[in-house]
Amino acid sequence: MSDEATPDPTPPNPWRVYEIGEADTIIAAGIDDAWTVWSEHTGERRQDYEGQIEELPMDAEIGIWCDTEGQPAEPGGDNRLIKLSAAEWIDRVGRGFLCSSEY
User: Fold this and answer.
1) Is the C or the N end of the chain the one with fewer CB within 10 Å?
2) pLDDT digits (tens, 9 = 90+) for 2-47
């Protein structure tokens, strides 16, 4: 019997968390995908914000207002601030526009 570990057949998760500007947080499969998600959500043009994107570390803590079901939502009412790592937000939400500090 070999002591070698069996490789995990599951491919690595492609999602990463990006901040665009100082306000918007996106989950996407790369920088180009992040720009696509952001542009579709905001209606803004990438060229107006070029150079203003940063990939966050997977262990970065991100606080987001969420509804009673734990999904991103507006502040106020019964909504509460939930702080999770970037990796945990990826598992919870998947690809898409995560939040904006301007709302």
Assistant:
1) N
2) 556 666 555 567 899 999 988 899 999 999 999 999 999 999 999 9
Structure pTM? 0.81
Tell me the C-alpha distance between 90 and 26, whole Å: 10
Task: Tell me how long the chain is.
Answer: 103
Rounded Cα distance, 56 and 16, in Å: 8
**Which residue matches tokens 């940063």?**
54
Residue 31 phi, psi (nearest 5): -60, -45
Q: Which has the closest alpha carbon to 15: 4, 24, 25, 5?
A: 25
Q: Residue 10 carries which side chain, given as an amino acid letter?
A: T
Q: How far apart are CA 101 and CA 4, in angstroms?
A: 47
